[in-house]
C-alpha cells in the first residue's frame, strides 16, 4: 500500500508524492505494543510518539546531529538525509525543519510505525514549506519505508543513490549496517553511528567487542571513552577495507542506556597508517 501526502492512509508502507516505500524486516530497536498517540515537543518541534520507543534524554545527541547537518547544508548547498532506524521520526522531522534538509528518507523495521511516521513528516513538511516559494513547496521532501536496514542501504549503493548524511541509531553492538552505510554515503558526507553496548565498552564482553568492533577491551575506569574509541575504531577498520578515510567530527556519551554516538566524515583515500595507536 502507499500514501500520498494529504490523504488518509492505513498503517502500512507509505510513499510520498509517488515514491514507493517497501515492506520487510530490518534491524532496529524493539517495537513496542501500540499505545495512544502521545503529543510531544523537542526543541520547539511538535511530534507524536505513537507506539514507538522514544527517549527524551537522547535529545542532546539529536541536537548535535541537527547542528552538524545544518552546517553541512550551509557549506555544500544541499542536504539529503537517510534515517535508517527512525522510530517515531523525531530525528527525521528535526532534520527536515531545523537543518532544512532538501530530502529526508525515514525507514524503520516496525510496520506499526508507518502511520505515525507519515503523520509526523507530513506535518513537518507543511511547516517547512510555509516560508518557501510555491514552486519549491511542491518538491518531494520526504519518504518513508519499512525495509530491512542493510537491504535499504545496499539498494541505495547499487542505484548510486548517495546521501549527505546517514543516521544509524542502532541497538546494542549491532555493526551490520556499518559497511552498507559507508557504501551509501557521498564522498565528504557524514555517517552518524550508535552503540548502546555498555558491557563491551566496560570490558565485560571482550570477545563480543572483538567480533563487533575489532578490539579486545579490558575493564577500565574510563569505559565511556573506550566505548567511543571502540565505535570509531570499528568504523575506521571497515572504511580502510573500502579505500576510505574516516574523520571523527564529534562524539557524545550519555550515561542513560548507556549511549555512545559518533559523527564521522567519510572521504575517499587510503587509511593513514601513521595515525594508529593502541587504547
UniProtKB/TrEMBL annotation:
Q: Where on the tree of life does the source sit, at the highest rank?
A: Eukaryota
**Keyword RNA-binding (UniProt):** yes
Write out the transmembrane intervals: none
Q: Which InterPro entries match?
A: SAM-dependent_MTases_sf, Trm1
GO MF, one example:
tRNA (guanine) methyltransferase activity
Q: Which UniProt keywords apply?
A: Methyltransferase, RNA-binding, S-adenosyl-L-methionine, Transferase, tRNA processing, tRNA-binding
Q: What is one Gene Ontology biological process annotated in the Swiss-Prot or TrEMBL record? A: tRNA N2-guanine methylation
Name the chain's protein.
Answer: N2,N2-dimethylguanosine tRNA methyltransferase
What organism is the protein native to? Marchantia polymorpha subsp. ruderalis
Amino acid at each position: 500500500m502507499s500514501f500520498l501526502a494529504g490523504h488518509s492512509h492505513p498503517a502500512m508502507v507509505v510513499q510520498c508524492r509517488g515514491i514507493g516505500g517497501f515492506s520487510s524486516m530490518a534491524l532496529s530497536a524493539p517495537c513496542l505494543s501500540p499505545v495512544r498517540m502521545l503529543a510531544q515537543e523537542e526543541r520547539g518541534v511538535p511530534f507524536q510518539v505513537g507506539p514507538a520507543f522514544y527517549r527524551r534524554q537522547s535529545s542532546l545527541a539529536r541536537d548535535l546531529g541537527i547542528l552538524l547537518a545544518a552546517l553541512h547544508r550551509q557549506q555544500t548547498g544541499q542536504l539529503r538525509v537517510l534515517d535508517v532506524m527512525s522510530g517515531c521520526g523525531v530525528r527525521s522531522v528535526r532534520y527536515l525543519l531545523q537543518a532544512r534538509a532538501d530530502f529526508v528518507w525515514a525507514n524503520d523495521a516496525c510496520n506499526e510505525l508507518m502511520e505515525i511516521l507519515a503523520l509526523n513528516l507530513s506535518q513537518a513538511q507543511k511547516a517547512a514549506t510555509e516560508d518557501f516559494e510555491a514552486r519549491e513547496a511542491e518538491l518531494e521532501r520526504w519518504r518513508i519505508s519499512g525495509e530491512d536496514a542493510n537491504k535499504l542501504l545496499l539498494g541505495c549503493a547499487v542505484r548510486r543513490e548517495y546521501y549527505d548524511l546517514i543516521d544509524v541509531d542502532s541497538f546494542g553492538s549491532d555493526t551490520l549496517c556499518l559497511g552498507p552505510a559507508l557504501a551509501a554515503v557521498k564522498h565528504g558526507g557524514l555517517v552518524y553511528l550508535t552503540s548502546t553496548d555498555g558491557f563491551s565498552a566496560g570490558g565485560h564482553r571482550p570477545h563480543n567487542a572483538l567480533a563487533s568492533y575489532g578490539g579486545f577491551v579490558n575493564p577500565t575506569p574510563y569505559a565511556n571513552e573506550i566505548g567511543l574509541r571502540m565505535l570509531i575504531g570499528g568504523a575506521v577498520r571497515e572504511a580502510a577495507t573500502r579505500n576510505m578515510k574516516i574523520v571523527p567530527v564529534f562524539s557524545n556519551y550519555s550515561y542513560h542506556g548507556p549511549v555512545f554516538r559518533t559523527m564521522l566524515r567519510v572521504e575517499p583515500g587510503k587509511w593513514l597508517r601513521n595515525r594508529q595507536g593502541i587504547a
